[in-house]
Specification:
Strand order of the largest sheet: 1-7-9-8-3-4-5-2-6
Keywords: Methyltransferase, Transferase, Transit peptide
Protein name: Aminomethyltransferase
Order of helices and strands: EEHEEEHEEEEHHEEEEHEE
Radius of gyration: 19 Å
Pfam families: Beta-barrel_CAF17_C (PF25455)
CATH superfamily of the largest domain: Probable tRNA modification gtpase trme, domain 1
CATH topology of the largest domain: Gyrase A, domain 2
Shape: globular
GO molecular function: methyltransferase activity
Number of strands: 15
Number of domains: 2
Length: 288
């Protein structure tokens, strides 16, 4: 039985299905993940990028019979589907948006995903959390709001568009996609791939999604400062914990100079999530 404190219903998600004999080849040339590695047990984070390498649609994708299922934020679903249809041309694929009103998420439970015919493990989170997304009825009515879900996202620095960043304004590296299985650097070309590859090989990612903690309740949109320099704004907040996009070189520079981090003149700390494999840079070059 799923425990209610670790389960939430998300009503702001929609499903898009891409099926057909050329579905793999079609998506492989468009999105950031290696489509050939997607399986029917896991959901991988992925994105559609602009030619400049910035995210114009973020989503989760898993394999289903004859194709793929995409779990995407409801406000992005229609425009994303239209883009896919535009790129379709003569490809032998069918792109549909079936009725899907609720996505259920459950974690830290002794639940076998095969107990449900339509469920996937969310690859963004460490395996120990057993993060499962379910696309069918569950044995009870799960709550629509659950701070524990946002706490989990904060702990592992998992961003949500609209809450933690604005579509069209960030590169995949900014929101740690290279750290959570959201990017492929080995497959062939896709839209925006050249920019993403350059950032990877030159280790040029300077903005990252970081964790902010204070001794007081934090509010989305609050400004993080180090002396007179503004480092960023808070995104998702739960009590005294939050996520924020910041330049890691600016954060490290303030650390080196022992300049305290503050929000509204109250002290906060800034850290990298435990599941991330990057660090604050050692050598700081003064930039604006």
């Amino acid at each position: 039985m799923i425990e209610k404190q670790n389960t939430i219903r998300l009503k702001n998600r929609k499903i898009i299905k891409v099926i057909g004999e050329e579905a793999t080849r079609f998506l492989q040339a468009l999105i950031t993940i290696d489509v050939e590695k997607i399986n029917s047990q896991e959901l991988f984070p992925s994105a559609l990028l602009s030619p400049q390498g910035k995210i114009i649609a973020d989503f989760l994708i898993g394999k289903i019979d004859q194709g793929y299922m995409i779990d995407i934020s409801a406000p992005l679903a229609d425009s994303f589907q239209k883009r896919l249809i535009l790129y379709k041309l003569h490809a032998k694929v069918k792109i549909t948006q079936p009725l899907q009103e609720v996505t259920t998420i459950s974690w830290q439970d002794e639940i076998n995903t095969f107990d449900f015919s339509s469920s996937f493990i969310d690859k963004r989170f460490p395996q120990k959390e057993k993060m499962v997304r379910i696309y069918e009825k569950i044995p009870f009515l799960a709550p629509e709001h659950n701070d524990n879900w946002n706490r989990m996202r904060i702990r592992y620095a998992i961003a949500e568009s609209g809450q933690d960043y604005e579509i069209g304004k960030v590169f995949p590296h900014d929101i740690n996609y290279d750290q959570i299985s959201g990017l492929s650097f080995n497959k062939g070309c896709y839209i925006g791939q050249e920019v993403v590859s350059r950032m990877y090989h030159r280790r040029a990612a300077r903005r990252r999604l970081l964790i902010v903690k204070g001794q007081h309740n934090l509010k989305p949109g609050s400004t993080i400062e180090a002396g007179t320099k503004i480092l960023g704004e808070l995104g998702t907040c739960v009590e005294n914990e939050a996520l924020a996009l910041m330049r890691i070189d600016h954060v490290k520079d303030a650390m080196n100079k022992h300049i305290p981090f503050t929000i509204e003149n109250l002290p906060v700390t800034i850290s990298i999530a435990e599941n991330m494999n990057f660090s604050f840079p050692e050598n700081i070059v003064e930039t604006n």
